[in-house]
Design goal:
Layout (H helix, E strand, L loop, with lengths): L9 E5 L8 H13 L4 E5 L10 H8 L3 H16 L1 E4 L3 E3 L11 E5 L5 E8 L4 H8 L18 H11 L9 E3 L3 E4 L1 H4 L17 E3 L8 H17 L1 H13 L2
Parallel strand pairs: 1-2, 1-3, 5-8
Antiparallel strand pairs: 3-6, 4-9, 5-6, 7-8
Helix pairs in contact: 2-3, 3-4, 7-8
């Protein structure tokens, strides 16, 4: 007898700002249909989202910082509906059914930080509730007029560390059955240094549109990616080490 999955076959994604999706994202989303053909897909946007749900979301939306709006909305969707959330620049390369029997799951972005481009949870899971509640007393617009651009990965990592997560990039299960996978499962692409850690265990690839970063930072990352393809990530690391030691 087949046991019912804890996480429903629902894929949530966010698209705020009413702009046209870039070709790269459209291509990524086509891979969802290929590997997740029996899933329900729900787009969260201005038409089905309460953008005044809290101060943080309202201020982020008014500032047109849509990536930060989606940081909250992804959690809201997972808590109230259950399922899997994916960023629109995530490519699926293998079916995700093996993860549906977890209470909740995510993975590492590198050795010390978690990722949030692919994550899932059962409906009303306490881990998602805790992550949501972190926004209750936060403001996106700070007193000095700047924005709180703290990434959700930094916040989620800190909260999970308090629950016993060891920041070493390894497979782990913490309280309430929250399971974390090594980076190669969901985030094998190093968007900072351009490295590629794809393995036979990789199920999704986050291509990182990096919409939350300033233009000069995105350009620098793209240059590193090209260099990595030419000389390899190890050579780049050695070059960086030599440059830093020369100062």
């Amino acid at each position: 007898m087949k046991v019912a999955a804890k996480i429903p076959r629902i894929v949530h994604y966010c698209w705020f700002g009413r702009g046209e999706k870039p070709k790269k994202m459209v291509k990524c989303m086509r891979s969802w249909q290929k590997h997740l053909s029996d899933y329900q897909f729900i787009e969260w946007n201005e038409d089905n989202t309460d953008l005044s749900v809290n101060r943080y979301v309202k201020e982020a939306y008014e500032a047109k910082k849509y990536a930060f709006v989606s940081d909250y909305v992804r959690l809201h969707a997972l808590y109230h509906h259950g399922g899997i959330y994916m960023d629109t620049d995530v490519e699926v390369i293998k079916p995700l059914d093996k993860f549906l029997n977890h209470e909740a799951f995510s993975g590492f972005e590198d050795q010390t930080f978690l990722q949030s481009g692919t994550m899932g949870a059962a409906k009303h899971h306490p881990w998602i509730k805790e992550l949501l509640e972190d926004y209750d007393n936060r403001s996106f617009l700070l007193k000095d007029g700047t924005y709180d651009t703290t990434t959700n990965t930094a916040v989620i990592t800190a909260i999970c560390k308090n629950h016993g997560l060891v920041l070493d990039g390894s497979y782990q299960v913490i309280q309430n059955g929250v399971t974390f996978y090594p980076r190669d499962y969901f985030s094998p692409y190093d968007y900072i240094n351009g490295g590629n850690y794809k393995t036979g265990d990789s199920h999704t690839i986050h291509h990182f549109a990096k919409s939350w970063l300033p233009a000069h930072v995105r350009i620098r990352g793209d240059v590193k990616r090209v260099l990595s393809r030419v000389v390899g990530p190890k050579m780049i690391a050695q070059m960086r080490k030599l440059l830093s030691s020369s100062h």
